[in-house]
Automatic annotation (TrEMBL):
This is Uncharacterized protein. Gene3D superfamilies: Exocyst complex component Sec6, C-terminal domain. The lineage of its organism: Eukaryota, Metazoa, Chordata, Craniata, Vertebrata. It comes from the Eukaryota. Belongs to the SEC6 family. It comes from Umbra pygmaea. Residues 1-26 are annotated as: Disordered. InterPro entries: EXOC3/Sec6, EXOC3/Sec6_C.
Length: 538
């Protein structure tokens, strides 16, 4: 392995000094192999031998300078001519004890290579006092730091997977800089002054750049494969697999690399979040277009599968939730496009999914007001239809809520379209009967989902409107309807006010105008439509 030589560790030409050093050939050979662990032969020295070898250089320096002089005295005596030689011997010795990287199979031997470099570094604290006394510790650390990153550069050139680069980054940031190695208390003060931090920062920058390129490629490849598998998969292999496979695969794919980045550094996690977001955006765009095309074809053929529609709704719901979780952790991400596309697809799927329940609801309500089904017993058909769907709490709540909402809207619509006096003859107390039905409907749908929204509020307000003889109280009741029942009751509110013929045209106008601030757009439409006057005269 080629090594870079740095002039600050020696002089322009050290050969004369080395040749006249006063060391025998045997001693010079020993100095050149200081601390060697013989990695090629896999010889492991015990602690005593390791410490002994790391004292060799210090001893050689002391002996070669002046017999029994102290290490400090020897260094001072001939520092002008001897120190460069010791620095050169130190550099060569470190190069010899560093592991020789194999020309191939570096990835498979990555853990062994990192362990060897760690073992070399762990030996320095024991010999630190001798080198520190000779004022050579900084040089030792700087030389070792250079060798470490030359090894890491070679390894980085050969790795091409996210796993191996994450392993390298983790070793550099969490092991090499730890108190066990470079941050050891015996080395830290000198290390702060000696090491070239550019070697560290430049290497991390190169590693992260290579990592991001591989992550981007891997993410797009994996997400494309997930979509391809989805297009070739049968609609319902099994209930569980059909409804969770897509979004689980996508989330696991993105989370795997996000979690690994989080364990390495927050900055790296931030950059990888951007890549994951780009991958998710691309996937959602392709997925939405793919499913919209399928839904259009199935609608034309009349072959829509309820389980397939349920699965689309489930996937959209989970992907939206996941997208929002990523965006919440990264303020620069815009969720607009992803959420809008998924909402559109989910809406189409739910619309098709609700066609049959809505059709049943229309039949049930029509029969009820005709008197053919006095207790709305056919609601059990809707219950059976909803129970056949998979037990997904969130999605089931949505479907039950939509069915409940549609029943209430249809009920209220049929109610005001029938002459009031006709219903009085059938039910006697119309307000009480409507309130009873409102409670019954909520009880029925609460069994299907206990947390379902109370869509029956508009029906409960019918009795208040019919029985209210005080205009001021009626204004308050209408205000509540406009505020809380905008999706169920406002469309037919005007018809309800004139339904029993008690209120005059002027009184109805006064009640509506008093609530213009509550729902101004809706009331403006009522007051300016030609059929408003006709309804008042009914």
């Amino acid at each position: 392995m080629l090594r870079k030589k740095h002039k600050d560790l020696g002089t322009e030409d050290l050969s004369p000094l080395i040749n006249s050093s006063g060391l025998s050939e045997n001693e010079e050979e020993q100095s050149w192999n200081l601390g060697s662990r013989h990695y090629g032969k896999e010889i492991v020295l015990n602690n005593y031998e390791v410490q002994k070898k790391h004292c060799v250089l210090a001893e050689r320096v002391s002996v070669s300078v002046q017999g029994e002089m102290t290490f400090s005295e020897a260094h001072t005596h001939e520092s002008d001519c001897k120190v460069p030689m010791y620095l050169h011997l130190m550099e060569v010795s470190l190069e010899k004890i560093f592991p020789e990287l194999p020309t191939c199979d570096i990835v498979n031997q990555l853990k062994d290579n990192l362990l060897k470099m760690r073992n070399v570094q762990e030996e320095h604290p024991s010999s630190a006092p001798q080198f520190k006394e000779a004022q050579l510790l900084k040089n030792l650390i700087a030389c070792h730091h250079q060798c470490i990153f030359e090894c890491l550069d070679q390894i980085l050139q050969h790795v091409n997977t996210t796993k191996t680069i994450f392993t390298l980054l983790d070793w550099v940031q969490h092991k090499y800089l730890s108190t066990e190695l470079l941050g050891h208390p015996e080395l830290w003060d000198e290390a702060l002054q000696a090491v070239d931090l550019r070697l560290l920062t430049d290497w991390i920058s190169q590693a992260e750049k290579k990592l991001l390129a591989i992550v981007q490629k891997d993410l797009f490849t994996s997400l494309r494969r997930i979509l391809q598998n989805e297009s070739s998969r049968e609609v319902c292999v099994s209930v569980d697999e059909a409804f969770i496979r897509l979004h689980v695969d996508v989330i696991q794919c993105l989370n795997a690399v996000l979690q690994r980045a989080k364990e390495t550094s927050q900055t790296l996690k931030h950059n990888i979040q951007k890549l994951c977001w780009e991958g998710l955006q691309d996937f959602v765009e392709k997925y939405v277009n793919f499913e919209k095309k399928n839904l259009k074809e199935e609608t034309q053929l009349g072959t829509s599968n309820r389980m397939y529609l349920f699965k689309i709704s489930k996937s959209c719901n989970e992907l939206k939730r996941y997208a929002l979780s990523i965006a919440a952790d990264h303020k620069g991400l815009d969720t607009g496009n992803i959420i809008s596309a998924l909402n559109e697809l989910e809406g189409i799927a739910l619309q098709h999914l609700m066609e049959r329940p809505i059709h049943l609801a229309q039949i049930i309500v029509a029969k009820y007001f005709k008197g053919d089904d006095k207790e709305m017993l056919h609601l059990n058909d809707i219950e059976q239809l909803l129970n056949d769907l998979p037990k997904d709490q969130d999605l089931q709540k949505t479907i039950v809520s939509k069915a409940y909402h549609q029943i209430v809207v249809l009920y209220f619509q049929h109610l005001v379209q029938i002459k009031y006096m006709k219903l009085v003859k059938r039910w006697t107390d119309v307000g009480e009967r409507v309130a009873h039905d409102a409670e019954f409907l909520h009880s029925f749908f609460s069994v299907l989902n206990p947390s379902v929204e109370k869509w029956n509020l508009i029906l409960l307000k019918v009795r208040e409107v019919l029985e209210c003889s005080d205009i001021e109280s009626l204004k308050i009741t209408v205000g509540v309807i406009l505020q809380d029942c905008s999706s169920t009751g406002t469309k037919h509110l005007h018809a309800l006010l004139c339904w029993n013929g008690v209120l005059s045209r002027q009184e109805i106008k006064e009640v509506l105008e008093a609530n213009q601030d509550v729902n101004p757009c809706y009331l403006s439409q009522i007051m300016h439509t030609p059929w408003y006057s006709c309804l008042l005269c009914c």
